[in-house]
């Protein structure tokens, strides 16, 4: 019997609609990060939670980049639409987000500052257009100093739907499940 079954949460921010994919504007019916989050859930099991801000973002890509830039510079903490009531029951939190201006969207900062992650394991994953993980891992360490932060995985948005083999090998190497 395995006495240490680790309960997983896959929490992610992802914005469907107009975005930049492979250098071109595309209209995403499902956001890239959500595609990857669903693949991780299939492999790791556990619950998913879609981090969403009350105000949301414009449908238009360029307008969204402007709103996001202002939020980053003002260190905004947008109010979220939902809350996880049983965070204490999760040991491992896969945390997913698109890279915005070299780091996480501000709703992810709100999420990280809304709970006590002491003693938990956070596993970051992102989708991006060239920045890789950017500053995100350092920012997560800063926000959750008492959590263990594992090495994350960065997937190009255009490769989200074919990320399955990379995700399998990454999850295997993490050795935490
Ligand atoms: C506001 C905004 C800012 C972005 N900034 C970056 C960036 O700094 N570096 C990067 O590689 N990609 C950047 N991107 C591209 C996204 O990270 C990429 O399209 C991602 O796959 C979108 O994921 P989603 O569909 O889950 O929201 C940005 C996109 C948006 C909308």
Summarize the structure in short.
The protein is α/β, with parallel strands linked by helices and 177 residues long. The chain has helices at residues 32-44, 61-73, 106-112, 136-143, 164-174; strands spanning 8-12, 17-21, 24-28, 47-50, 92-98, 121-128, 148-149, 153-156.
Explain this structure to me?
The mean pLDDT is 95. The relative contact order is 0.19. The chain has helices at residues 32-44, 61-73, 106-112, 136-143, 164-174, and strands spanning 8-12, 17-21, 24-28, 47-50, 92-98, 121-128, 148-149, 153-156. Strands 1, 4, 5, 6, 7 and 8 form a 6-stranded parallel β-sheet that branches. Strands 2-3 form a two-stranded antiparallel sheet. It has one domain: 3-Layer(aba) Sandwich (Rossmann fold), CATH 3.40.50. The chain has 177 residues and is of the alpha/beta class. It is globular, with a radius of gyration of 15 Å. The structure holds flavin mononucleotide (FMN). Flavin mononucleotide binds at residues 14-15, 19-21, 28, 31-34, 61, 64-65, 68, 98-102, 127-131, 157.
């Amino acid at each position: 019997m395995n006495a240490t079954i680790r309960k997983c949460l896959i929490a992610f921010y992802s914005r469907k609609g107009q975005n930049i994919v492979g250098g071109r504007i595309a209209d995403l019916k499902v956001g890239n990060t959500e595609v990857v989050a669903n693949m991780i859930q299939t492999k790791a099991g556990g619950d998913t939670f879609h981090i969403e801000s009350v105000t949301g973002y414009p449908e238009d890509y360029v307008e969204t980049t402007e709103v996001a830039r202002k939020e980053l510079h003002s260190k905004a903490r947008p109010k979220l639409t939902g809350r996880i009531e049983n965070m204490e029951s999760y040991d491992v939190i896969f945390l997913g987000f698109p890279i915005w201006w070299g780091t996480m969207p501000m709703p992810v900062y709100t999420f990280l500052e809304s709970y006590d992650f002491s003693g938990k394991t956070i596993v970051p994953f992102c989708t991006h257009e060239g920045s890789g993980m950017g500053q995100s891992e350092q920012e997560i360490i800063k926000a959750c100093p008492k959590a263990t932060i594992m090495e994350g995985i960065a997937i190009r948005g255009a490769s989200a739907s074919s990320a399955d083999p990379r995700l399998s090998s990454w999850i295997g190497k993490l050795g935490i499940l």
